[in-house]
Amino acid sequence: MPLLEPSFMGVLITVFFVVYFLSSAIKILREYERGVVFRLGRIIPVKGPGLVIIWPIIDKLVKVSLRTVTMDVPSQDVITKDNISVKVNAVVYFRVMDSIKAITEVEDFYFATSQIAQTTLRSILGQSQLDDLLANREEVNAELQKVIDFQTEPWGIKVTAVEVKNVDLPVEMQRAIAKQAEAERERRAKVIHAEGEFQASQKLADAAHIIATAPSALQLRFLQTLAEIATEKNSTIIFPVPIDLIRPFVDKYSKEVEDKRE
After folding, report:
1. CATH architecture assigned to 69-169
2. How many angstroms separate the CA atoms of 95 and 32, rounded?
3. Per residue in 146-171, is it b (16+ CB within 10 Å) or e — as a string?
4. Does the model's pTM come out above 0.85?
5. What CA–CA distance (Å, rounded) separates 76 from 78?
6. How many CA atoms are closer than 13 Å to the CA of 44, on its beta-carbon side?
7. Is the dihedral of CA 96, 102, 107, 113 positive or negative?
8. pLDDT tens track for 50-95
9. How far is Cα 188 from Cα 178, in angstroms, rounded to an integer?
10. Where do the structural domains in the chain lie, given as residue ranges?
11. What are phi and psi of 199, to 5 degrees?
């Protein structure tokens, strides 16, 4: 028995090293992952996806995900071009296009992209006026995406979209905007009212021209109005008398007065 113990220990040690070697040598990469392998400090072609075999100690594998990353940009204090202080946060969508550049060109591409997004957000929005930031959101987003993508391209990072999420305004500015909106609504109401009056006057003028060409139309209109009033069961009816009906009597009376004077 004492002679078997050293050989048994040797077998255990051998099995341990074999298991360690296999676990260190065999790697499985998912469909969206790639492996950047450093062999003695030098890069070899990218591995994956699927089963990847490396040499322990000699090779070092760094996994890189190719999926789109959604990164939230913290709120930034921005002073717009028209000197208004606002808090703005955004979200950046990017993905790794070149695994080797993402590992070798920058120490931490996720942290670097976050910092670039924050500084660019302050820079671009600082060149925009508040009205443009609130109304032309798509143009601002496109400009942010263009600038951030240009700076991350050497790292093998592609920025697909940048969206400004919230724009927090000071309370005083919110009140000023509310007053401006209220004044704008009042202006529109007055303009609409004036346009209605103008259109109504045009229709009345057209109606007057038609009645002038057909005097009987006025009498028919009076009778129609009288019929409408009668349906309300009113005890008192005030009905206008057209001057054209009494004009002959007025002219006759005036003529008699002039004859008497003569």
Report:
1. 2-Layer Sandwich (3.30)
2. 11
3. ebbbebbeebbbebeebebeebebee
4. no
5. 6
6. 16
7. negative
8. 888 888 888 899 999 999 999 999 888 888 888 888 889 899 999 9
9. 15
10. 4-65, 69-169, 171-213, 217-261
11. -65, -40
